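User: Please write out a complete single-protein record containing the residue sequence and its fold in token form, without commentary.

AI:
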Amino acid sequence: MAKKKSAAKTGFSLALLFVLAITAFFFANFKTVVVSGESMEPTFKPHDRVLASKAYWLVGSIQRKDVVVLRNAEGNGFFIKRVLGVGGDEIDAHNAPSDWSLLDGPYIVPEGHIYVIGDNADVSEDSRKFGPVSLNDVIGKVVVRQ
């Protein structure tokens, strides 16, 4: 009888440890963010939820056209944008929205940075306004809309 209780305790402890490990892995590598604003419409609407991976080894490095979650300048919130260029890319006004603000010709994205834009460029505040974003300010790459 004592062996059955001991085996049951061990089994329960292992199951609990497994659940805690999976939970810790999830919280360490993923972030759920609620979309606010209209800058990513029609792709994402206000109050949509997205799951972003902080673990690039799981989902690959940030590439052009990826959607990323960024820390805002004040550090107290997040915003979601699409990557238009990565370090070393030349951003050219010919491929940009009509309200493009870089009038002095092509722009080279610095290494270690990305250039982001909202899908709804007419209302988006993005790299056209605040410049390139350091990869250190990227919270994660959007992998799922919930």
